[in-house]
């Protein structure tokens, strides 16, 4: 049985939930992806449509998850949903991937990006040391007080949104327009939407939008989850969609493609072009500050998967222990240690590459589960029903399935590694179940 929350414990508000979703989504992807997209796509319309299509995929997913979260209000995200809809083994596999690679590695990636951007302002700073320090400070805040962690998340995410909105506004005012068409300009522009180059770029855009489902991992701690979770998912995802399209419009509208092409630090390049080298370095510092909220949100959300898995599986029971404030301290410490390990070894980027397939696979299976649950349990209480059903979940499955197929074809080696990760998780699940089923020796008097 799930461990009850302490009486009177602090609950996550709608505002905090939206902050977690926005902070989880707006990370390294939006500041790095465009430079690689313009290598093969030269149409302003097609480039902007990439971010619109990626946002539509995320929004359709959020609509579907909103119904599942309202119908099955418990923390754990895909682990809980897949265990209920399909089989506990499949739920364990999703939790195994999410709790290790799915949260710890992206947290490390955001922290290391933070360190590199900070170094552009203060060259003497050690990026890896700063990354570790930031992770430790944020983990300390989140294991000390849920209220303090929630307030910190709201403050730093508000700063992030204001900085990005300000950059969009100022960029539009001072930019010299580039010769790009952002409305469809003939049949060639529409044809690019079906090109292999568009499919390749959509994989990276989908990574930039990952995190739209972050709030479902905290369901048990959200105030009135059946009412508020759908709002959190939809409002958070919609806000990020607007920010992403606006940011990339400014990037393309203001800066020649030749300057962006192949560049990793797109935000730095655009700011330097618009305002000069000094402002470019300051933008690097601002992005470092923005990434603090990304690291914080993942430290906040990820341990809740381990907590719920520990509640269900005796072998992981120590990770389910809550503090007097209702915080999964051990699970948070475990994820923090894994994050620091990734930072210090710097091998997590390969892990992310092969894990991308299985992470997308589980979101696909979760949205597919919406149809299965409606068929199997038509009488289940659904305080919220997915808007546009069945079109919106079908659209998500179609676009996400297309991306999955392309990843498997383009990166067969990484896909095999991902499947191998699932195989290891499956072995751990059945070994753990067999161990927990064995009779324990009687205690001595």
TrEMBL record:
It is found in: Membrane. Pfam families: AA_permease_2. This is Amino acid permease. The chain crosses the membrane at residues 12-39, 45-68, 89-114, 120-142, 154-175, 195-220, 232-253, 282-306, 352-375, 387-408, 414-431. PANTHER family: AMINO ACID TRANSPORTER, SOBREMESA, ISOFORM B. It is a multi-pass membrane protein. Gene3D superfamilies: Amino acid/polyamine transporter I (1.20.1740.10). Keywords: Membrane, Transmembrane, Transmembrane helix. Its main location: membrane.
């Amino acid at each position: 049985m799930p461990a009850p929350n302490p009486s009177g414990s602090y609950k996550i508000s709608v505002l905090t939930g939206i902050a977690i979703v926005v902070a989880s989504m707006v990370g390294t992807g939006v500041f790095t992806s465009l430079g690689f997209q313009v290598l093969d796509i030269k149409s302003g319309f097609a480039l902007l449509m990439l971010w619109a299509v990626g946002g539509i995929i995320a929004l359709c997913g959020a609509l579907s998850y909103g119904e599942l979260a309202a119908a099955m209000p418990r923390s754990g995200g895909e682990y809980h949903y897949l265990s209920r809809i399909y089989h506990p083994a499949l739920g364990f596999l999703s939790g195994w991937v999410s709790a290790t690679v799915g949260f710890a590695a992206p947290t490390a990636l955001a922290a290391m990006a933070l360190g590199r951007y900070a170094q552009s302002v203060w060259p003497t700073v050690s990026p890896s040391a700063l990354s570790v320090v930031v992770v430790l400070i944020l983990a300390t805040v989140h294991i000390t007080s849920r209220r303090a962690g929630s307030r910190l998340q709201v403050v730093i995410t508000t700063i992030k949104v204001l900085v990005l909105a300000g950059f969009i506004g100022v960029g539009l005012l001072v930019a010299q327009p580039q010769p790009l068409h952002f409305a469809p300009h003939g049949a060639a522009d529409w044809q690019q939407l079906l090109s292999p180059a568009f499919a390749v770029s959509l994989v990276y855009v989908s990574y930039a939008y990952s995190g739209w489902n972050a709030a479902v991992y905290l369901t048990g701690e959200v105030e009135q989850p059946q009412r508020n979770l759908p709002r959190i998912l939809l409002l958070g995802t919609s806000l990020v969609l607007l920010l992403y399209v606006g940011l990339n419009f400014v990037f393309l509208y203001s800066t020649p493609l030749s300057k962006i092409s192949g560049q990793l630090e797109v935000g730095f390049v655009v700011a330097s072009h618009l305002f000069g080298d000094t402002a470019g370095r300051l933008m690097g510092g601002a992005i470092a500050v923005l990434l603090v909220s990304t690291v914080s949100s993942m430290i906040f959300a990820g341990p809740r998967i381990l907590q719920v898995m520990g509640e269900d599986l005796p072998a992981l029971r120590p990770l389910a222990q809550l503090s007097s404030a209702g915080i999964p301290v051990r699970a948070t410490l475990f994820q923090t240690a894994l994050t620091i390990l990734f930072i210090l070894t710097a091998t997590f980027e390969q892990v992310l590459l092969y894990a991308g397939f299985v992470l997308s696979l589980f979101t696909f299976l979760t949205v597919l589960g919406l149809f299965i649950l409606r068929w199997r349990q038509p009488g289940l209480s659904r305080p919220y029903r997915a808007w546009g059903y069945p079109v919106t979940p079908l659209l998500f499955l179609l676009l996400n399935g297309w991306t999955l197929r392309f990843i498997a074809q383009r990166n067969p080696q990484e896909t095999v590694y991902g499947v191998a990760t699932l195989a290891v998780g499956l072995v751990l699940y059945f070994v753990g179940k067999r161990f927990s089923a064995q009779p324990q020796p009687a205690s001595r008097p």
